[in-house]
Amino acid sequence: MVDTPSWSQGYVTDTGYTHGFYRELSPAIITYALRLAGRRAPDIDKPFTYCELGFGQGMTLNALAAAFPHGEFWGTDFNPDHAAQAKMMADGAGLSNLKVFDASFQDFAEAATPQFDFIVFHGIWSWIIPEARQGILDFVRKKLKVGGAVYISFNALPGWGPAAPLRHLLYEFGRTQGGGTVDKIDKALDFATKLVESKQGFFGSVGGLDKRVEQIRKHNRRYVAHEYFNEAWTPDYFSDIAASMGEAKLSYAGSANPLDGFDHLNLSATAKPLLAEAKDPIFREVLRDFLLNRQFRRDLFLRGNLTLPTQERSAQLLGTRFVLTVARSSIPEKVKLPLGEMQLKAEIYDPLLDALAAGPVMLSSLIGKPEFAKITPNMLIEASAVLTGLNYAHPVGSESLIAARKALVGRLNQMMLGQFLAGEAGDRLISPVTGSEVVASVNDRLFVEALQAKAKDPVAHAANRLTRLGLSLNAGEKRLTTVADIVPVLTGVYKTFTEKTLPVYKQHGIL
Prior knowledge:
Layout: H1 27-36, E1 49-53, H2 59-67, E2 72-76, H3 80-93, E3 98-101, H4 105-108, E4 116-121, H5 130-143, E5 144-155, H6 164-175, H7 181-198, H8 202-205, H9 209-217, H10 221-228, H11 238-247, E6 251-255, H12 263-266, H13 271-276, H14 281-292, E7 296-302, H15 310-318, E8 321-324, E9 334-337, E10 340-343, H16 346-357, E11 361-362, H17 377-389, E12 393-396, H18 399-421, E13 428-430, E14 437-439, H19 442-452, H20 458-468, E15 473-475, E16 478-480, H21 483-507
Parallel strand pairs: 1-2, 1-4, 2-3, 4-5
Antiparallel strand pairs: 5-7, 6-7, 8-11, 8-12, 9-10, 13-14, 15-16
Helix pairs in contact: 2-3, 2-18, 3-18, 6-7, 7-9, 19-20, 20-21
């Protein structure tokens, strides 16, 4: 068994968390989602304060500090390795507006910090002991401004109900094994597979456990360690979360997912009237979780839950600029929503996608154009919310903000490229235009590095870079390890990159 340090409070600390970026934590997405829900949001055009509790490797926190240089960013993660990683990234990118700590939530509640407009905690609540949860509530109660927003994500019931016993079994089996947490994972999954195949007792009465085990196998092992192998692991009903947030004088404001506000996109014709009968807003969300069998929620709460008048809501949403985050040709005609597959109506989405593909555009500027003659303002608001919820589009900052963040985001991207090539960073780069992520595969990032280096032959540059790092390229079942073998394969990949990905990167100011 690995000794657990006393400060860990039962949380996995022998392996770091993944290098993830979570765009729902962005002030731009939070304020946009609040406006969609008809709520007043903090003003992010003015200086604001922001705090992340439990920031993991600090990728999101650093990216947001670079994206909003007029904001003041704070964060704590009680794992000192995480704090050191986040500070190293901040120092390397020259982020003077970010302060990171390795204090517990309880201790941080007593620290000398400003009052915050935003307090966020993603992937924390369900995996910590009750004392740490109370530390979060104490921090929020003491540190959140009136009018401030809180983002919380958590494992939800009833969706996790059938699989919760499997999680408990994996943890208990791992507890009996030697070695580090990551070393236990495959042993635990192999044991669970044998039990599922036995179909004995619980394993014969609950369906889908075989698929659940195989799904877990596909995940990054560090993610699995933190998701399934913490001592504390408690899914919640939404009503329990609302009650806890109420202790800190917070009221439920809406979902952080832009898609959640449109019942006709999420619920069947028979389910919608059942939900409509629920007048209490808390019970309505509980019922929604049952109807959707939701396993994970991302929610927004406000201290001072003020409603936006309908006209002001429409004006703010129509006054928002958007841009595509992927190539126009990459967006399918049919998309997957909770209700099932939905056709993106060509008469609405084609002109909107064409406009967004040309560059950042404000929705209100489209009204009155011939191609939008049959598209109402509310249709524009919904369509842009759908595209944003699916991560095909993103709200855009002002031109002055884009100019202010460009150098900082550029330095951060350089660090991310370097960390990726060392096997650390995730599959993304940060856009100076949105302050959020754009997808960047292994090959994409190799080509970006080659183009930034002004290489005469980007393909050869990328191939040489791969081999110098001791990496390879797979072509079918063949593993390519030499420059001569890699270049022909990368040549075709580079052609696709220049046709689809490069224009998006240029539009987002990455190149």
